[in-house]
Design goal:
By secondary structure, the protein is mainly alpha-helical. The protein is built from 3 helices and no strands. α1 runs antiparallel to α2.
């Protein structure tokens, strides 16, 4: 269980960095990484408690990170 949690954090941080680097978001590197890690943590614990998710923990982390970036805007664009 602990290695999966660490892998989730690492994958979420990579997704946050890549999304900022590619121009998908314009939040800044640290806010994007924090949003991704928070979303991945939330989805990880929901998966443990209720068994909701995909088979692969890595796929869960990627989808939860992207979903968190889409749902939580930090700066409003004009």
């Amino acid at each position: 269980m602990f290695p999966v949690l660490i892998g989730t954090v690492v994958i979420a941080a990579i997704v946050g960095y890549v999304s900022e680097r590619s121009g998908f978001t314009r939040n800044g590197y640290l806010p994007s990484i924090v949003i991704c890690v928070g979303g991945a943590f939330l989805f990880y614990f929901v998966t443990i408690m209720f068994g909701i998710g995909f088979r692969s923990p890595g796929l869960n982390a990627i989808i939860a990170s992207i979903g968190a970036l889409i749902i939580v805007p930090t700066h409003f664009r004009r």
